[in-house]
Write a structure and sequence with these properties.
Blueprint (H helix, E strand, L loop, with lengths): L16 E6 L6 H12 L3 E6 L9 H8 L3 E2 L5 H6 L2 H6 L3 E7 L1 H9 L5 H8 L4 E5 L3 H5 L1 H12 L3 E2 L20 H14 L10 E6 L4 E2 L5 E2 L6 H12 L3 E6 L10 E5 L3 H11 L4 E4 L6 E3 L19 E3 L3 H6 L9 E8 L3 H12 L3 E6 L11 E2 L1 E5 L2 E4 L3 E2 H19 L2
Parallel strand pairs: 1-2, 1-4, 2-3, 4-5, 5-6, 7-10, 7-12, 10-11, 12-15, 15-16
Antiparallel strand pairs: 8-9, 13-14, 16-18, 17-20, 18-19
Helix pairs in contact: 1-2, 1-9, 5-8, 9-14, 10-14
The chain binds cytidine-5'-triphosphate.
The site of cytidine-5'-triphosphate has 16 residues, from α12, β15 and α13.
C-alpha cells in the first residue's frame, strides 16, 4: 500500500511522447508488451506500422494498446490532411524503431525515404533509438555492421541485439532486446537527456589507462592502453551527475571535466588509490593493469656490461577489480563493472572472467591488433550482466561510454538509494 504522505516518485517517462516504428520481423509481437509498459509509465505512444510490420501484428491490436490511430501509409490523403509525415516525425520526444530489421537499418543508413517509416526517420529532428532484430548472419554481415556503425556515428542509439536461439533455428546475436531492456534504454535516454542528472548524489570510481611497472629508474613494463575508453566513461558518468574519482595510469588523455583525477603509475598505487576512494556506488575498472611487475626493482640503471642481459623475475600484481568485488559489505561498490580485453573467444573468455573476478557486469572487448581498439577511436563491445550478453555495434568510445553510463544509471535507480 502506498504511503499518502510520500508522493510517488515521478516516472521519467511521464508525459513523454514516443513515436514507435514497428518494422517487419517476428519480434514485432514484443512491441505490444513494450507499448503496454510505456503507457503504464505515463508515456504516450504513437505507432507507425510498416508493410512488413503489419504482417506480424495487426493495426487493430497496436491501436487498442496505444489508444491512438496507427499510421501506415505515406500516401494517405487523410494522413496528409490531418497529420503530415513531417509533423508526425517532429511531434515526439523520441523515435524508437523496434524491431529494426536489416532492411530498415540499411535504408536509414542510405537516407532512403520510400515509405512512411523511412520518410519520417529522415525528416525527424528528434533522437532515434533502434532495437535491431534479425538472423545472426544478417546481423554479422559486414553490410549490416557498417550500416549500424554509420547510424551510431550520426547519433542513433541502439539497444541489443541479444544472443540466443532464434525463430530461424539458428543461435547467436540477432534477437531483439526484451521489452524491459528497451524500456530501460528509453528511461536511460530521458534520465540522461536534457541535463537530467540521474546519478546526482552517487559516487563513481573509474580506473583508466595502463600502469607502468618499473624495471629500474629509467625503464618500465607497460602496455598499449590509451585510456580513451576509461576517461570517456568517467566523463559520461560525471555528465549524469555522479561525483567521479578517476584513478588514471600514465596517459596522454586530458583530465575529463568534472572528475577528481588521481594520477598513479603502478598497479599497487592504483589499488591504494582505489581503496582510499571507497565507498562508491559503482566502480568501473577500465584500466589495462599490468599483470606482473619486476620483483626487486633495481635502484640504479641496469648496465649492459654487467655480464649479459639481465634476467627479469616477475611477480604478480594485485587484482584491483577482484579486490573491489570482494570488499566487505558496506565497502563493496553496489555495482562492480570490469572490462575483459581479449584477442580470441571474446565472449566465452569474458563470461568466465566475470565469474572469476566476482564482478557484476563485464564489458568484453576485442583488443586484437586487427580490431584497432587500443589507441583507436572506436570499440566493439559485448555487455555481460549475469547470464545475459548484449552485443553492441561498433561505436565511438564516447558512445560506448554514454550507453554504459545510462545502463549504470538505470541499474542504480532500480536498486534504490
Ligand atoms: N584488472 C585489475 N587488476 C589487475 C588486472 C586486471 O583491476 N591486476 C581488471 C581490468 O581493469 C579489467 C579486468 O580486470 O577490468 C580484466 O582485465 P584483463 O586484462 O582482461 O584480464 P586479466 O586479469 O589480465 O586476465 P587474463 O590474463 O586471463 O586475460
Amino acid at each position: 500500500m502506498s504511503d499518502p504522505l510520500v508522493p510517488a516518485a515521478p516516472s521519467p517517462l511521464d508525459g513523454r511522447r514516443i513515436l514507435l516504428v514497428i518494422a517487419g520481423g517476428i519480434a514485432a509481437y514484443k512491441c505490444l508488451d513494450l507499448i503496454r509498459r510505456l503507457r503504464e509509465r505515463g508515456a504516450a505512444v504513437r505507432a507507425v506500422l510498416t508493410e512488413g510490420g503489419a504482417q506480424f501484428v495487426t493495426p487493430l491490436s497496436v491501436q487498442a494498446l496505444t489508444e491512438d490511430r496507427v499510421y501506415q501509409d505515406l500516401w494517405s490523403l487523410t494522413d496528409e490532411s490531418e497529420m503530415g509525415h513531417i509533423r508526425l516525425s517532429r511531434e515526439a520526444d523520441l523515435v524508437v524503431v523496434a524491431p529494426a530489421t536489416a532492411d530498415l537499418l540499411a535504408r536509414m543508413a542510405a537516407g532512403l525515404a520510400n515509405d512512411l517509416a523511412t520518410t519520417l526517420l529522415l525528416a525527424t529532428d528528434k533522437p532515434v533509438l533502434v532495437a535491431p532484430a534479425m538472423n545472426v548472419r544478417m546481423w554479422q554481415h559486414p553490410a549490416t555492421q557498417a550500416n549500424v556503425a554509420l547510424l551510431c556515428q550520426r547519433g542513433v542509439r541502439t539497444v541489443g541485439p541479444n544472443d540466443g536461439p532464434m525463430a530461424c533455428h539458428e543461435h547467436g546475436p540477432g534477437r531483439m532486446a526484451e521489452p524491459m531492456e528497451i524500456l530501460d534504454a528509453i528511461v536511460g535516454h530521458f534520465s540522461g537527456a536534457a541535463g537530467g542528472r540521474p546519478l546526482a548524489g552517487r559516487h563513481a570510481l573509474v580506473t583508466s589507462g595502463p600502469t607502468h611497472e618499473p624495471i629500474d629508474p629509467v625503464r618500465y613494463i607497460a602496455n598499449r592502453s590509451s585510456g580513451k575508453q576509461g576517461h570517456a566513461i568517467a566523463a559520461a558518468l560525471a555528465r549524469l551527475g555522479a561525483r567521479v574519482t578517476l584513478v588514471a595510469g600514465p596517459t596522454r588523455e586530458p583530465d575529463p571535466p568534472g572528475c577528481t583525477v588521481m594520477r598513479i603509475e603502478t598497479a599497487r598505487q592504483m589499488l591504494d588509490a582505489c581503496l582510499a576512494a571507497l565507498p562508491a556506488d559503482v566502480a568501473v575498472c577500465a584500466a589495462a593493469v599490468a599483470d606482473w611487475r619486476v620483483k626487486g626493482t633495481a635502484g640504479q640503471k641496469l648496465k649492459k656490461d654487467a655480464g649479459g642481459p639481465p634476467v627479469l623475475e616477475l611477480t604478480e600484481n594485485p587484482d584491483i577489480l577482484a579486490t573491489l568485488a570482494a570488499a566487505e559489505a558496506g565497502r563493496r561498490p553496489r555495482l562492480v563493472v570490469g572490462f575483459a580485453a581479449e584477442t580470441q573467444n571474446i565472449v566465452e573468455y569474458a563470461v568466465a572472467k566475470r565469474v572469476r573476478k566476482g564482478c557484476d557486469w563485464i564489458v568484453a572487448n576485442d583488443v586484437s591488433p586487427a580490431a584497432g581498439t587500443f589507441g583507436g577511436r572506436d570499440n566493439t563491445v559485448h555487455l555481460i550482466r549475469g547470464g545475459t550478453v548484449e552485443h553492441w555495434p561498433t561505436m565511438g568510445k564516447e558512445a560506448v561510454a554514454a550507453r554504459l553510463a545510462d545502463a549504470i544509471a538505470v541499474h542504480l535507480e532500480r536498486a534504490g538509494p
